[in-house]
Amino acid sequence: MSHDQQHPHRSEPPTAAAVVQLNHTAVYAGDRHLSAEFIAAILGLEIGAPFGPFLPVDLGNGVTLDYYEKRDEPIQPQHYAFLVPDAQFDTMIARLEAVGVTYYADPRHTEPGRINRLFGGRGAYFDDPDGHNMEIMTRPYARP
């Protein structure tokens, strides 16, 4: 008797891809307060209470950026992309301009002061205080 015949009312469990979600990630920073405050201000988010050595910034989809101070070696820049509401995009660009941070249309930062219009949305790249390449975009990338 096969497994399905033994338990005819059981359905197949969901695939791992259907249930695995990113919950949090550590973001290395020379000054966790400065970097967490920077991204929270640009994105219009709040900083949470410190959790051990981490300073969390909660995103709208249940993912937390846990800022972790790392002063013993240089910060290796990473890329973080944020899907943002179209109605908030101009406000975020204005916040970057207000604090004197240059934004770019491309990830290599060769088109300053410009945005892109990928996949029918709008997007821009900018550096955080530690050199992480941050991206805001209003439409997710269309993947094959």
Description:
The chain is α/β, with parallel strands linked by helices. 23% of the residues lie in helices and 24% in strands. It has four helices and seven strands, in the order H-H-E-H-E-E-E-H-E-E-E. The strands form two sheets. It has a four-stranded mixed sheet, covered by helices on one side. The chain has a three-stranded mixed sheet with strand order 1-3-2, with helices on one face. It is globular, with a radius of gyration of 19 Å. The model has no long low-confidence stretch (mean pLDDT 92).
Along the chain, the helix and strand elements come as HHEHEEEHEEE
Specify the overall morphology.
globular
Mean pLDDT, as a whole number? 92
Q: How can the largest sheet be summarized?
A: 4 strands, mixed
Number of strands: 7
Helix/strand-derived class? alpha/beta
What amount of the residues lies in strands? Answer: 15-25%
State the end-to-end CA separation. Answer: 40 Å
Note the total helix count. Answer: 4
What is the alpha-carbon Rg in Å?
Answer: 19 Å
**Strand order within the widest beta sheet:** 4-7-6-5
